[in-house]
Design a protein that fits this description.
Chain A has eight helices and seven strands; from the N terminus they run H-E-E-E-E-H-E-E-H-H-H-H-E-H-H. Chain A folds into two domains: 40 residues, no CATH class; 143 residues, no CATH class. Chain A is α+β, with helices and mostly antiparallel strands and 211 residues long. Chain A is elongated. Chain B has 200 residues and is mainly α. Chain B has two domains: 34 residues; 162 residues, Butyryl-CoA Dehydrogenase, subunit A, domain 3 (Up-down Bundle). Helix content of chain B is 58%, strand content 10%. Chain B contains eight helices and five strands; from the N terminus they run αββαββααααβαα. In chain B, the strands form two sheets. A three-stranded antiparallel β-sheet of chain B has the order 4-3-5. In chain B, strand 3 and strand 4 form a beta hairpin. In chain B, helix 4 packs across helix 5 and helix 4 runs parallel beside helix 7. The radius of gyration of chain B is 21 Å and the shape is elongated. Classes of the chains: A alpha+beta (211), B mainly alpha (200). At the A-B interface, helix 1, strand 1, strand 5, helix 3 and helix 4 of A face strand 1, strand 2, helix 4, helix 5 and helix 6 of B.
Chain lengths: 211, 200
Amino acid sequence: MITEEELDNLIICKKCHTLHKRVPLPPNKKAFCSKCDILLYQNNPNILNKTLALVIAATISLFVAFKFTIVTIDIQGMEKSLTLYALFMVILEQHQYIVGVMFIFLIFIFPITIIFSMLILLILMKRKKGGYLVKRLLILLAHIRPWSMVDIFFISLLVAMVKLFDYAYIELGVSFIALIFTLILDIIITKNLSFYELWNLYTKIYGGVNE
Amino acid sequence: MSRELEYIRCHICEAVNYVNEKETKCRRCHEEIAPNLRLSYHKTLAFLITAIIFYIPANLYPILVSKQFGKTTTNTIMGGIIHLWDAGSYPIALIILLASVFVPLLKFILIIYLLISTRHNLHSSKVDKHKLFYITEIIGPWSMVDVFVVVILSVLIHFSGVQIFPGEGATAFGLMVFFTMISAQSFDPRLINQQKGDTF
């Protein structure tokens, strides 16, 4: 039989499922899979503080992105703005409930849930409190991470703008810039930050036995 | 028995677990890690079939309906792509073609291949299959591009004379993407690992 410590020193690649043994790394070095070269784990001495800084920045930019106008179009003097409020109104008016609900969840509710969960999680972990809540939030994050589509929304926005380019004068709003910032931070936080490290930290801080 | 067979990666907390007949919960996050493999197989198949069914109306019904001073014109996905191509917007036409036509088809083919190959012990590399499954999960959400574009357009083009609506096709397409993603998530990577065992 194999002990917990021995299991903790093993890691399975998320892409090719090859089993690896963890080796101690010098600070700020990364370990990659031997078969598919994907990032396995890294030694990031200040991971909590760095991520918390990124998450606070992302919270601000996400707030700006959803509060103000993303783009305004002008067709022969008639103006229309893309905002979250306009989106809600149009969905209600056109009775597009299935598409509308999907859109609002994927673009608005899931990204906001992720950012706020991360914020609460990191603050709790820094203060070494609330082990049970931290665990539940980490599990919640694992479940909804694939469903956050801010990046895809941004590409769609560009496609829609190119489609309108011939007919309308397009003016970029404050939120467009905020959306780019959110996107960059989102990529750094949810794609590059390894949740493997967060779970390891969780075991280290709370001892792993928090039912 | 190869070494990989005895270990399993928890899909929630990424901890390595030792496969044990009695223990079905992850040692770290206490979430289910070893659900019924047979159930996982059938869930993947059922969601995949649902997605394929939704793919038919998604392509036949209009994804975009535009009303210009009482005159209604409709656009299906392929119609929209051909329209863009004729208008000379080649990059956009290619993005939409890739995201709305190739990505869903590729996902169907990949999931079908993974299901067949794990059931019938096709002699192909397990590492390759794990990589294919990883690709399936990564490309999944990108097919939403077309639906998002239609929703954005319907918010922006919303004047008294000229209006754009998402059509029935958009609803079907959104549901299709939803079910392919659920299907991929129901697939248990252990199905790939336990190929030779053939227990079901």
